[in-house]
């Protein structure tokens, strides 16, 4: 039988052997995230004619460098998590390309006091990036399994400023309106009128608009202080459709 002192020695030996491995893994993912940020920065430069800028807000890149994208994708895709491309998350849905997440976030010009609405929680990744920058994020997902697993994932990762619910995001979330910014991460045939209503005067919305078989464009909508709208077409994109019975 092992003596008590031997048990302690064994415990510390295991701890010693396990710790460097864990540190290596964390450092490995940090390296991959740094590399992803470099790829995004390069792509922003080469697409500057669409974006009308050559670099994104540093705060957006800092936020993205903090969120562990590998924990938002199915295990089978984990090794691809820091490639600059969308990945399947089940139920025929995807986690968006990191470059697209970065430019949509940048377009919203988020302040630390902002309250934000996201339509299309998916994996919860975009919500996590927003939560790094804003005071509060509300997010709606229409597929039950995705909604449940994203809410659990965000809770486990310690995001206390994200509230997630199951529902049709076309109608927004009236109880928490108006919002400083709204982000829609599925393509709509038209900008949903309830979302325009729930946007604060002075607020911004980014939304991909266009049918499943048509060219979709990322649109930036700005609500002026007198509640009139201005829209700007940013660049062609490809998103899964906004579904629901509306
Ligand atoms: N933002 C997500 C992320 O970070 O993983 C990716 C979103 S994925 C491209 C689009 C999501 O929108 C899907 O999960 C889809 O089920 C959801 N969706 C589609 N129509 C919706 C609707 N009417 N209301 C809420 N969510 C919707």
Overall domain count: 1
Rounded to an integer, what's the Rg over CA atoms? 20 Å
> Which CATH first-tier class would you pick?
Alpha Beta
The SSE string, one letter per element, is HHHEEHEHEHEEHEEE
Helix/sheet category: alpha/beta
Mean pLDDT, rounded to whole units?
A: 93
CATH architecture: 3-Layer(aba) Sandwich
Strand tally, please?
A: 9
Question: Strand percentage, roughly?
Answer: 15-25%
The helical percent reads: 25-40%
Regarding quaternary structure, what we see is single chain
CATH superfamily: Vaccinia Virus protein VP39
Output the keywords.
246 residues, Rossmann fold, 7-stranded mixed β-sheet, 9 strands, binds S-adenosylmethionine
Q: How would you characterize the overall build of this protein?
A:
- The protein has 246 residues and is α/β, with parallel strands linked by helices.
- It has a single domain (6-237), classed as 3-Layer(aba) Sandwich (Rossmann fold), CATH 3.40.50.
- 38% of the residues lie in helices and 23% in strands.
- It has seven helices and nine strands.
- The chain has helices spanning 4-46, 48-51, 58-66, 98-107, 125-133, 144-156, 193-197, and strands at 87-90, 93-95, 115-119, 136-141, 162-166, 179-184, 199-209, 216-223, 229-237.
- The protein has a seven-stranded mixed β-sheet with strand order 5-4-3-6-7-8-9. A two-stranded antiparallel sheet has the order 1-2.
- A hairpin with a 5-residue loop joins β8 and β9 (229-237).
- The chain is globular, with a radius of gyration of 20 Å.
- Residues 93-96, 119-120, 122-123, 125-126, 140-143, 146, 168-170, 185-186, 239-240, 242-244 line the site of S-adenosylmethionine (SAM).
């Amino acid at each position: 039988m092992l003596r008590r002192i031997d048990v302690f020695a064994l415990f510390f030996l295991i701890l010693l052997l396990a710790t460097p491995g864990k540190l290596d893994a964390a450092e490995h993912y940090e390296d991959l995230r740094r590399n992803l940020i470099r790829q995004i920065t390069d792509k922003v430069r080469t697409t500057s004619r669409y974006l009308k800028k050559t670099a994104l807000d540093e705060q957006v890149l800092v936020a993205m460098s903090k969120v562990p994208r590998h924990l938002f994708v199915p295990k089978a895709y984990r090794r691809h998590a820091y490639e600059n491309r969308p990945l399947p998350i089940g139920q025929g849905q995807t986690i968006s390309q990191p470059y697209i997440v970065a430019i949509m976030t940048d377009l919203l010009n988020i302040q630390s006091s902002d309250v934000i609405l996201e339509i299309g929680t998916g994996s919860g990744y975009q919500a996590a990036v927003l939560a790094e920058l804003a005071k509060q994020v509300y997010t709606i997902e229409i597929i039950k399994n995705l909604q449940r697993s994203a809410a659990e994932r965000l809770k486990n990762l310690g995001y206390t400023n994200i509230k997630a619910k199951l529902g049709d995001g076309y109608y927004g979330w009236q109880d928490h309106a108006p919002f400083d910014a709204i982000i829609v991460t599925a393509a709509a045939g038209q900008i949903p009128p309830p979302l325009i209503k729930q946007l604060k005067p002075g607020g911004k919305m980014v939304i991909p608009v266009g049918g499943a078989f048509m060219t979709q464009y990322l649109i930036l909508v700005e609500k002026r202080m007198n509640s009139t709208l201005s829209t700007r077409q940013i660049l062609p994109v490809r998103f899964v459709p906004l579904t629901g019975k509306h």
